[in-house]
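notes to self, project folder thing:

trying the whole complex as one job this time. last attempt i did each chain seperately and stitching them together was a nightmare. two parts in total, labels are on each line so i dont mix them up again. if this works i'll redo the older ones the same way
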Amino acid sequence: MTASATDPLAAAAAAAAAPAQATSSIVICSLPRSGSWLLAEALDRTGVAGHAREYLRPELEQRYTRDWGVAPGDVDDFTRGMLRAGTTANGVFALKVHWHDCMRYVARGRASGRGGSDAGVLRTMLPAPRFVHIVRRDTVRQAVSWARALDSDAWWQVDGDSTANAAEQWDPDFEKIEVLQELLAEGERGWRGFFAAGGVAPVEVVYEDLVAEYAPTVRHVLDQLGIAQGQDDAGVSPPKLRRQADTMSERWVHDHLRWQRAAAVPSAPAAPLAQALTPGGLWVRREQPFPHVVAHDVFRADVYARIEAAYAELLTRPGAFDRNSNGYDVFSHTFDAATSAPLSLFCSREWHDLVAAVCGVRGTGHVFAGLHHHGAASHSGSPHNDLNPGFFARAAADHEVLLASAACDYFTGIAAQPGVVPIETVRGVAMIFFVCNGPWHPGDGGEVALHRTASDAPVAVPPIDNSMLLFECTPNSLHAFMSNRVRPRNSVILWVHRARTEVVARWGDAAIVRWPRPRESQP
Amino acid sequence: MSDARGNAGNSRRVCLLTGAGGRLGSAFCIAHAADYDVVAVYRERPPPVASQLQSFLDPLHPEVPPPENAHPVFAVQADLVAPGGVERVVELAMARFGAVDLVVNAAAHAEFGSTLANSEVLDGALHQLAVNTLAPVRLAAEVARQCWRHSPDGNRRRNRSVVNLSSISGVETYAGGQGVYAASKAALNALTRHMALDYAPVGVRVNALAPTGFPRLIPTERVVSRIVQFDRGGATGQVVVLDVDGERVL
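result (full assembly):
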C-alpha cells in the first residue's frame, strides 16, 4: 500500500519511550524527496538519536498543537511539546525540516524577541543543535519524484506493502518538474547560505550514498554527531521505507532530460563578456566528424592582446607550468581562485554559460581550466573523447563557477578536508582557445585532430591565434593533439561539467571514461 | 509537365558548382546561395557558408539562427578525377534536387614550373590536365547523361548551360612556368567551343570565362557576376576574357 498519511514512522513514534529532558538536538536539514525520511527512520531506529519528524510542517501544526496540549500560536510552548515528542531517553531530540519550514520557525523565533543569524536564532530555540544536511545528487530524479508524489499523493511506501505503484499511469507535466527543480535549487541555496552565515559545518549525507551504503552511512552520521551506540552495528537495521522509483519514473526522468535539452533557452551573457567578444562575430558549428564549433577572431583585438600578454608572462614565470599530465607531452598551468584578469574571464560564469549554451549542454557551474604549452616537436597524442569524470568539493550556485580545488581531488574525488562531500560530474564541453602561437602555416602542425574513428583520417583544426575549438564531450568526440613540428603550441584549455545523471541517461555509466592511474589529463 | 526531369513549378535554379571551397567557388556561394540551390563540390575544405555540414551561430544568442543560415548549400566532398568521382557527384545532385540547370566548372589545379627544368611539373602534368581540362568535360557529360539527354525542350525552357572557368593564361603567354597550366586552360577553351556544338542539339549552352588574376587584378565578384550573366543570357560557344580593360569575346 502506498501511503499519503503524514507520518510514515507513526508506529515507531507511538512506541516511543516516555519523554526525556532534551539536552541536545539533531536538525535534519532537508528538501522534498531528498531521502530525509529514510535517514530519519534510520536514526529513529537506533533508539539513541531522537525521533525525527516534520514537526514544523504548517499543515501538521494544528494536529500537534492539539495532541501535545500546547497553547495555540505560542512558539515556545510548541517547542516544548516538540521536544517532549521527539526526544529519546538519552536526551537527544531530532527534527526533520525543509528549508522554508525552518525559515518560518526562525521567523517566529525572531518575532518572540530572538536575534542573530538564522542558525543563531535556532540555537536559542533548541538545545545544542547539530545539523545534518541531506542532499540528493540527482536533482532531476528528485524533482520527478516530487512531481509524482504531488500528483499521486503517495509520499512513501513501507516495506511489506503488497501493491506497487508501477502500474499506475502518470502523465507528468515537464514544466512543473522544471519549476520543482528550481525550487529544489532555491532550497539548496537557502541551506548553504544558512550554514555559511551561521558558521555551521553540517554533517553531509548524500541520498545516493545512503541508499547504496545504508548501514555505513548511518554509522558515519552517528559518529560525526558523537552519538555512541554501545556496540558495533547496534541499531542500524535495514530500512522499512521502500524506494518508490520504478521503471516509469526512470522513463520520465529520461523524457524530462530530453525535454530540458529541447527547452533550454540560455540567457544572454552579461555585458562585460559581450563587450570582449568581436562585435558581430559568428561562430561556425560543424557536424563532421562529430559536432564541434570553431570560432575565429573570438575576442576584440585589444582583449586578445591582453590575454596574450598574460599568457606570455606566465610562460616566462618560473614554476608556473609543470609537466603534470603523465604520458602526455604537455606542460600545464591550472587556473584557480588566484587566477586574475584577463585570464579569469575564462573562469567567469558568463563564459561558462556561453560555451555551454553554444554546445547545447546544461553546465553545473563546475569548471576545470588552465593553460597547455606544447614545446616544439611534442609528440602527437592518442585519440580520446574527454568523457571523463570530474570531482568538485560542492555544488555550484547558479551564478558562480566552481573551479577544481585542493579541497577535493578533481580526478579521484578524494576529499582533502573533513566535511567535504565531493560531487561527481562529467566533462560536458571541451574548449581549446589558441593564444601565443604566432603566424601558423599549413605544415606547422599543432592542430587538434578530430576523428570519426580512431583510425580514420582526421579533420585538423589549426592553432590559429584568437581562434577556438568547442565541442560537447560524448563517446564519439574523438580528438588528439597533432605533433607541432615547427613551433611551440599554446592554448587555454577548459572543460565545463554537466550532471553525471545526464550522461548516464544518454550513454550509460560505462561510457564514462575513468581516469587511468597514474592519473592522466589530456585536452 | 515541363521536362523529363520533373522540374514543373520549380523556379529556383539548381547550380552544380565544383571548386566550391576555392576562392571563386566560395565567393559564388556567399553571393548566390540565396538565388540558386547550390550543389557545392569541394575537394578538401567546404565553402565558408551554411550547408548540411556546418552552420553559423551568434555566440551571444546561440538559439537564434542568423540570416547566414537561411540558404544552406548542399556540400559534396569529391575527387573529380578519382574513378567514379564525377558519377557520384551527379548522382548526389540528382538525388538531392532532381535536376541540374547550371554546371559551373570552377575546380582547378595549378602547378607552375619550367617544362625544361622542373620534372615535377611534367610528372604532375596529367593530373593538372585531368582536373582542369577533362573533369569539366566529363562532369557536363555525366549531367547530360543523367539529366539532360532526353529533354532538349525542357533544357531550352530552363535555359540550361555549362560555364567552364578557364584562364587568361590559356589565351596569352606569361612567363613564370605556366606552360602546363596554360595548356590545360587553352585546351579547355577549345573544348568549350566543341562542347557548345555537341550540346546544341540537347538544348544546353556551353561557355567559358577566361579571367585575369583575381582578386589581385580584378575583383573576384566581377568573375562571379559574369558567371551569372552567362547563366541568364543566351550565348553559347563563347570564351570571354575578363581583364582590367573590360571583357572581350575570343
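what i see at first glance: Chain A has 15 helices and 19 strands.
need to look closer tmrw
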